[in-house]
Design brief:
Helix content is 33%, strand content 27%. By secondary structure, the protein is α+β, with helices and mostly antiparallel strands. Strand 9 and strand 10 form a beta hairpin.
Length: 300
């Protein structure tokens, strides 16, 4: 098959591994900078044009950066209009990038979550703090990624100050209970085609509560429980994502989902577990692109 990886940086570990895995399985692999694609939106003859030539591919693996979601998903959607199989569909990517929308959908489907509140007016700060169970609590930017815009407020005054500051900048936020018993760790479950193919435990560095590897966290292979496996699979299904990284916290009231990532990195999960996740993704595409399974599985 001809498979295009939509990525801005060919040198990234995830991009190079996907290209390598595809080539090893006999596919024609190319890396396409989706911001350099332009679209012909002619009725009945949609095209994606790259470097002056129409792109003719059988499948696409989107690796869309959070800061380029709007145009990146537009390009993915154009491939969908062309009948090309995409590993993660445009609506599912957009859905996962909106933290509030994601949590609302997960809550509707009964997936375990931390107690979460959201408010617009600073006059409701005390109410939303109380709703989240009081301090300490976590304040998150809805548009944040890789741990940016996530703050632990240990006192009510600190929480009030942080929320007022964010709202003063017209930033939309979430307020969540702080899962102290997790001890600064979470479990990343890598879901491909409705199955957890690899899982790792990420531990925050000293003096830090965010376990993101980009923020100095460490990772190790972990055996997940049946509840954690089921929670991760249900979360991915709710988002409509075929490929996702589901971040789960181990709380006193069971597994709770923190986030569902539509472009999870491969480096941490592959190096910590020894699983060839890139090959699992290519295998999924082989099975499903041939079957022509191209539809949005999410709800809303």
């Amino acid at each position: 098959m001809r498979i295009a990886i939509l990525s801005r940086r060919p040198s990234l570990y995830s991009t190079t591994r996907l290209k390598e895995a595809g080539k090893n399985r006999g596919h024609d692999m190319s890396v396409v900078d989706y911001l350099r694609c332009y679209m012909d939106i002619t009725s009945r003859r949609p095209q994606v044009i790259y470097q002056g030539e129409p792109l003719k591919v059988d499948a696409v693996i989107p690796r869309i950066g959070a800061s380029n979601t709007f145009y990146g998903t537009a390009v993915v959607r154009q491939f969908e209009m062309m009948g090309v199989f995409v590993a993660n569909e445009s609506q599912a990517i957009s859905r996962s990038r909106d933290k509030l929308r994601s949590l609302q959908l997960l809550a509707r489907d009964g997936v375990g979550l931390p107690v979460t509140g959201c408010a617009h007016s600073t006059k409701d700060i005390d109410g939303v703090i109380s709703l989240a169970g009081g301090t300490p609590l976590v304040v998150k930017l809805i548009e944040g990624t890789q741990g940016v815009g996530v703050i632990l407020a240990e006192t009510k005054k600190a929480a009030q100050a942080v929320i007022e500051a964010f709202r003063g900048l017209d930033a939309n936020i979430l307020v969540q209970e702080y899962i102290k018993e997790a001890g600064g760790s979470d479990v990343r479950c890598f879901v491909v085609g409705g199955k957890v193919v690899a899982s790792m435990k990420r531990q925050a560095g000293p003096g830090e509560f965010r376990s993101n590897l980009h923020r100095g966290g460490t990772a190790e292979k972990v055996k997940i429980t049946p509840e954690e496996r089921s929670t991760a699979v249900r979360a991915a299904r709710t988002m409509g994502l075929n490929i996702s990284g589901v971040d789960v916290l181990r709380s006193n009231h069971g597994a709770v989902v923190m986030e569902v990532n539509s472009s999870p990195g491969l480096e941490g999960i592959e190096k910590s577990t020894g699983v060839d996740v890139a090959a699992k993704i290519i295998e999924f595409i082989e099975k499903n692109a041939k079957a022509g399974l191209q539809r949005d599985k999410g709800k809303g």
